[in-house]
């Protein structure tokens, strides 16, 4: 991880104060190397007393999934270390709402913007608006799929490898053969990568068939209904791969309602406490664990490096881990 401390010279702090006061010249476009333009510096904890703070605008996917609230909390804590002000918003899985939040960030002349896109394709025009305003954009957990929109750096779980971990868990759970369904959320890039890794590994096993790939939109209630439809259509289904934990918990509820507990295995993806408890209770076979705190802190550190004039890495991936009952039985946070 990039060092949390860096020196800021007096001229940079003065430039930050002018830019943040809104009385300086129009911000420059970020350059292709990812270095901060001369007019977009920011004060840090090492800045002289009284220097204006940099402000970071953040719009994350949703606050109904603890993964994103944990990421937001980590961003707040890391921003405090750098003496940044943080404006934290949630897009509620609504691309139009997220676009309005970014417009507000632009009006407020924030120093940087962090996005977990509600729609990886539609977010491109939103990012381009920030680009035109000379505000650097960073993405966390979910990437933009727009080839034109400029993102300085992306930090996320290695979702492709995580999808392969989920496939390994499915193979183990059903003894290497059977019928599997995916409850998906194809609007977001992170899930696209998960399902890609999952399908590639499952596809190499001729004794396992993916019989359905239907959307649950990452939400428990919607995924419950999707799982019900799949269970009704495939009475011999052996397992679900669920792209996040709310989806997995929705599938568990549908399995219980259909009186098929123990017969249909569930693999989740996130690592939220309720899902870990379900692993311990035998309702979820395994969960692929992410580290939202690391993603959040690392994203703020990338901004800090950018503002110090360092070249931002295009992408930083954080490895996921598989979490099974043997792990849950030793977890002190569980009942």
Condensed summary:
The protein has 335 residues and is an alpha/beta fold. The chain is 41% helix and 19% strand. The protein has two domains: 10-155 and 292-315, 3-Layer(aba) Sandwich (Rossmann fold); 159-290 and 323-328, Response regulator (Rossmann fold).
Can you describe what's shown?
By secondary structure, the chain is α/β, with parallel strands linked by helices. The chain folds into 2 domains: 10-155 and 292-315, Response regulator (Rossmann fold, 3-Layer(aba) Sandwich); 159-290 and 323-328, Rossmann fold (3-Layer(aba) Sandwich), CATH 3.40.50. The protein is 41% helix and 19% strand. The protein has helices at residues 10-21, 66-81, 95-107, 123-132, 159-173, 189-203, 220-233, 245-257, 273-280, 292-307, 325-328; strands spanning 55-60, 85-90, 112-115, 137-140, 153-157, 178-184, 208-215, 239-242, 265-270, 286-289, 315-318, 321-324. The chain is elongated, with a radius of gyration of 22 Å. The two termini are 33 Å apart. Mean pLDDT is 88; it is low at 1-50.
CATH hierarchy class name of the largest domain: Alpha Beta
Number of domain units: 2
Gross CATH architecture of the largest domain: 3-Layer(aba) Sandwich
Q: Would you identify the regions where 5 or more consecutive residues have pLDDT less than 50?
A: 1-50
Strand content: 15-25%
Helix content: 40-55%
Number of helices: 11
The H-level CATH homologous superfamily of the largest domain, spelled out, is Response regulator
Largest sheet: 6 strands, parallel
Gap between N and C termini, in Å? 33 Å
Count of extended strands: 12
